[in-house]
Write a structure and sequence with these properties.
The protein is of the alpha+beta class. It is 38% helix and 27% strand. Strands 1-8-3-6 form a 4-stranded antiparallel beta sheet.
């Protein structure tokens, strides 16, 4: 039971899943596979197609774009959620800086859940829209429009 509560807490940090009820989130958590990773493991590679989403449970990971560090992730952080909706090439590489654990949800499992629980699709899209709005605000702050 503590493991399930930990998974739910980690998934609840993801904007796309914040609008889910506990029951719906439990369905997502059941789909997630726990992965043990080692320092130096490359989890996703920039430019390669993505089909998985990850939540970092333990450890640290470095996110790089074109070889430059853009973020360091820790427990509770996540990456790859857009790959659940669209398998476009990854926009960054994520490499483990330390040994750790990840939760992985694949695109196939995600779409099976949406098929089985159609009402969940609307909530997940709402949550994803929140994430995109937040990213848009960050982009505007960094690159204000010309006046």
């Amino acid at each position: 039971m503590p493991r399930t509560k930990e998974r739910l807490a980690q998934l609840r940090t993801v904007p796309m899943f914040q609008v889910c009820t506990n029951k719906e989130l439990a369905l997502v958590a059941r789909l997630a596979e726990e992965l043990t990773v080692r320092a130096g493991d490359v989890v996703v590679t920039e430019g390669e197609p993505g089909r998985e989403f990850y939540v970092l449970i333990r450890g640290q990971a470095e996110v790089t774009q074109q070889g430059s560090t853009v973020a360091v992730l820790g427990p509770g952080d996540y990456f790859g959620e857009l790959a659940l909706l669209d398998p476009q090439p990854r926009s960054a590489t994520t490499t483990m800086l330390s040994d750790g654990e990840l939760l992985e949800v694949t695109q196939r499992e995600f779409w099976q859940l949406v098929t089985d629980v159609p009402a969940l699709a609307r909530k997940l899209l709402h949550g994803l829209a929140r994430r995109l709005h937040a990213e848009e605000l960050v982009c505007r702050a960094v690159n204000p429009p010309d006046k």
